[in-house]
Each structure stands twice: as structure tokens, then as C-alpha cells.
Amino acid sequence: MRSMKEWLDGVRHRKYVGVAELAEQAAKILSVGGYVQERGTVTELPDERTVRYYLSEGLISPAEDKQGTASVFGYRHLLQLLVVKKLQSERLPIRTIRELVGSRGERQLERLLLSGEGERKTGSGEKNEALRYLETLLRKPASAPPASSPAPPASPARSQRSTGSLPASISSELSAPDAQHSLPQAERDSWRRVEIEPGLELHIRASYRVPRETKGLRRLVQSILERIALHGGRPGKGES
Amino acid sequence: MSQTAPRVEFITERARLAAGREQTVDVLLRITAPELETVAGHRPRLNLSVVLDRSGSMDGVKMERAREAARYCIDQLLPQDRLSVVIFDDEIEVLIPSQPVENKTVLKESLRRIRARNSTALHEAWVRGGMQVSEHLSQEGINRVLLITDGLANVGITNTDEIVSQAGGLFKRGVSTSTIGIGGDFNEDLLMPMAEAGGGNAWHVQEPEDMQRIFAVELEGLIAQVAHTITLGLVPADGVRLVDVLNDFELGETGRYKLPNLQAGSPLEVVVQLKIPAQPSRTKLRLLDLRLGYTPQDAKAAEVVKQAFEVEFDEESAIEHLPLRAEVGKAVQLLMNARARREAMAHMDRGDFASARGVVAASMSASAPLFARMRHDQDVSDEETSLSELSELLEDPSRGKDSRKRLAYDSYLRRLSRKLR
């Protein structure tokens, strides 16, 4: 079975003329990819009508181009549609979905879509009470900052996350960097997040020094590969 | 009633009570979990998250021992179990995301990367560990976060009551929390209540060398666990008064006491004091109705055992000839000593070491008859060792932190009728 990532790689540069074409592409990825949701109240696969509804609700951005009278949609629109369906299957209210999807770029949407892939979750996306509870604890601001340190700067990302409940996969992704921002400046070293290639990022501390000798480098590469394997990454296809 | 129903015994010092006078009687309630089938590999599935402090103070021997203990833990787990490891200082890293314990070598190898660093974001790390467990919540297995720290929560949420109540909230939703405090600088007033509210165990590791042994005890306890969410309701008969429950269990909202999890092979001993009005000789009286609520490990719903305690009254002279059941006196003394330890702590907190020493000395002399009579008993000899070590520790005010932890943990273990070491 093709992974979501492989699907996305194949359609990155495609354009869709008209709402129907966009809906058809998303439905194909969702049905063939086995991402179909089980709930009765939401249409299982997006059709023309659902896409129009999402457009009117602002869940999908308006088309930027026209071809004759038909709107032309692109990769970002497709991602928005897929993310909306994914979040709906995780039983998030429309309001929360709109906040999550609205202003995000392609990279972030991809991340939302790919997060949690390959994991075996309990109850296929349906979150248990324990997880929901812990997520509310994570979103709760610290009641009292430590007396010895200055108050943390207000974080816009935190207030944005105060509505609705996020699926574990997403909230952990969003809140991990956030947690660092909530630390007082003095206790934080400066970190940079760098994308090595799609699906792989490095988080580098400013004071980090790359080992010089070959032995050290080999150990580093080995350790990175082990970590990727540990976190569920699988070797790709192609020459070795 | 299921096969997992615990057995309850009511034991008084003599099998009958004296007639003709009002009296206060100690009743030992012994709650025994059924033995587990000991077929190899037949045990509840474990879903664990080890949440490990790597703040600067953990550097050196402590970190090495913690790593060894984690490796030991990996060795003990089966492929059907799940393990995750979260490490934290001011930042939190999911070192090993929750996964079946299949490739032990790779898992152990990844522990090598842990290095001690900054300050302590204990709360968020605990939440992260909880999330690792919750994402794969096992209905019939045991879901537990094992928090290991040598320090104080000083990043993020640091309010003790808040963290404790959250641990209680998570336990209600199926994930329990155990805590291991290492050395002399952690906050026992956070870690013990957190474990108690969290439905797990609190351990104090004085020497890093003890780490692996504590892990072993914790794992054995998990494997032996047969029921959780244990509640005890006690209703005395008309005219009878429930004077005291010596274990000082927390009272739940429904007026029932909250008891620790039931483990096979470790009966839970509860002592209640009843004040009973004078009764005529040769009569039988129902003194107490007991209601024990519990949730078997492999079930979702709570079950209940109801039992009444009836006792016969007889002439004083006849009572004297009945055999003495020494376990009642022992249980009473151990629980009184547990209270004394908490009293000594309160003195210490006011800076009054002399009174703290006085309380421990008084416990020593009150226990002397027990020590003389039952020296062969493991609990009794442990108690004697504990008290004499304590009085020695208390002589040295510079070791105040160690004394306080010793007092706190020994008292806690006794209340829950667990072994001291």
C-alpha cells in the first residue's frame, strides 16, 4: 500500500480544474490509501458538495486561478481538504479545524497530515479519556513560574491552542517547541530547526559542535540512523 | 462473584470478647488477594513509561545506576509489553516512543545517550510519559508511568497540590503513577502523595546502588497486581462506634476509604478500633458491616464484597484461656509507630529535633515487648532496625533531609502494609 507521503509526492505539482476534480483526487487518496473514516454523520469521502461546503466555511482557501468559469485548485487546496477530513475523523469540531487549517502553509499541512502515520493507535483515531485529559493538562499554563526566574514571554501559539481538543499526534507536535518557548530566556540555549529533507528535521543547539574525526562522525551518523529506526522510520526503496 | 474476589478476615486479639463491660477493641481486617496462576508468561500486559530526570544533579553514579535499572527493566519485560522512556531536564525528550519490547539490544543501546544537564521540568515530563502510555492504553493490562527524579520541580507547573490532583485524575482514567525519589534533595511531599493519588507506589532510593532492587520490587508488584481502585466502607452496628482507622487512609467522596492496589501474595492489613457497649455473656453480636469495592485487573467494572463481622461475648475468665493472636498486637504497634514517624516529621519541620528524637525513642520503648516477643518476624525485625537507624540519624541535624525522607517513606509503607525494604 502506498503511504500518504508517497501519494503526496506524486501530486505535488498537479492542478485541478473545478471542485469536482479536487474532490475526486482527495477521495482517491483517502479510499485507496485506507484512510476512510467510519463515522456516519460525516460523508466518508469528499464529494463536490462537501468541497463547496468547506469552501463556504473557509476550511479551504478560495481558488487563486480561473480557467474559463471553473476555479483552478492546487496542491495546498488538496492538502487542506485532506487535513480537514483527517481532523474530522478524529472528531474535532469544525471551529477547531478551521483554526488549525486556515493559515497554514503547505509544509505545515503536510506535517499535520503525516503525523501519526505508521503508528498503531488504540481505537483508530478515537482518543481515550486519559489522553484527552493529559492534553488539557499540557495546554494549561503554569500556575506559578519559579520564583527565581523572570516571567516567560507571552506565547501567541499557546493562546491559539486554547480551543477544542487536538489529537495527540498533532498537539504533541505543536507543543513540543512551544514548551521551550515558555522557558525563561536565561534557561534556554538557542535552538534552530532545520529541514534536511521532507520528513526529516534537525534540531540544533547554537553551541553544538560537529565531531571532527571520522570515528566521531561515523558514531553520529550511526546514532541518527538508530534513532530514526527507533521512531518508526523505515528504510526507503532504491539502490543501497 | 468472580474468581478474583479478595478474602476478608476479621481478627481480634482473642476469638471472643469479654462480656459485662464497655470496651474499645482493635480489629485487624486482613484483605487477601487470590493467588495468581503462575503459568510462565501468564501475567497482565504491562504498558510502562519510564520518565527519567537527567537534570545536572543526576550526573555521575546516580545516572549510571538509573540507566542500569532501566536496562534491567527492559530485560524483565516481555515482547507483549510496551515500554517508552521519556527523559527530562528543562526540556523533554521522548527518548524511546512507546513500543513493544521486541528488540531489547536496540532499546538498551539508546539508553546510552542519556546525559545529565539543566533544571527540572518534572510536571510536563510526567504528562509526556502519561501520553506515551495513554496512546496505547491497555484495557486488561497495567498502564503505568514510573517517574524517577532526584530534584524539585522547578520548570512549568510546580505547585504540589496541582500535580498530585492531576496524578489522581489520570489514575481515574486508567493510568497509574509510581515515583522513585533518589538521594536527599527531591521533594517527598510531592512524590509520595503523587504516587498515592496516582494509584502507584512511592519509593525512596537512598543509595544509587538500591535502584535496581527498587525497580525489581516495582515490577514484581505490577506483575502481582490483581485489583485496583480498592475502596473500603465500614458501617458499625447500632451502639457500636468506629473510633479510629489506624492506617489513616484518605476518605473518598462517598465516605469510603481509599486503599492501595491489591497484590497477590501481599495481604493488606487494616486496623480499626471499635467502641462497644457492655454485652451480656454468651451472646453473639454483629459489630460491623464491611463493603469492599475493587476492580479486578482484567475487568472494567468494579465488583463488591460484603461481609459482616460478628463476635461472641463470654466471661472474662473464659477469654483469658483463649489463645492470643499476636498478629493483632503487631499490626497495631506498627501502625502506631507509623503515626509516630509522621509526628516526628512535624517536629522536624518546626526545627524541633529534640522532640522528634523523643517521639522515636517513645516508639522504641512502646515496641520493646513486641521486639522481644516476635524478633523472628521479618516485619518486626525490620521495624526494630528502622527505628534504631532513625534515632541515630536524628542525632545528626546535618542529615535532616535524610531523616525526614526515612520517616516519611517508612510511615507511608507501613500505612499501606507494605514491606519496609
Question: Would you mind describing this structure in some detail?
Answer:
- The complex is a heterodimer of chains A (240) and B (421).
- Chain A has helices at residues 4-11, 19-32, 48-57, 75-89, 94-101, 106-114, 129-139, 156-160, 168-181, 214-230, and strands spanning 16-17, 65-67, 70-73, 191-197, 200-205.
- By secondary structure, chain A is mainly alpha-helical.
- Helices cover 46% and strands 9% of the residues of chain A.
- Chain A is globular.
- Chain A is built from 10 helices and 5 strands; from the N terminus they run αβααββααααααββα.
- Chain B has helices at 61-76, 104-110, 122-134, 160-172, 188-197, 211-224, 316-320, 326-349, 353-373, 378-394, 400-415, and strands at residues 7-11, 17-18, 23-32, 46-53, 82-88, 92-100, 142-149, 176-182, 199-205, 225-236, 241-245, 257-259, 262-263, 268-276, 284-296, 303-314.
- In chain B, the strands form 3 sheets. In chain B, strands 2, 10, 12, 13, 15 and 16 form a 6-stranded mixed β-sheet that branches. A 6-stranded mixed β-sheet of chain B has the order 6-5-4-7-8-9, with helices on both faces. Chain B has a 4-stranded antiparallel β-sheet with strand order 1-3-14-11, covered by helices on one side.
- In chain B, strand 7, helix 4 (160-172) and strand 8 form a beta-alpha-beta unit.
- In chain B, helix 1 (61-76) packs parallel to helix 6, helix 4 packs parallel to helix 5 and helix 9 (353-373) packs antiparallel against helix 10 (378-394).
- The A-B interface holds A 119-122, 128-131, 133-135, 137-138, 140, 142-144, 146, 148, 168, 172, 176, 179-180, 182-183, 187-188, 223, 226-227, 229-232 and B 90-92, 96-97, 99, 106, 109-110, 113, 118-119, 121, 124, 127-128, 130-131, 133-137, 143, 154-159, 162, 166, 169-170, 173-175.
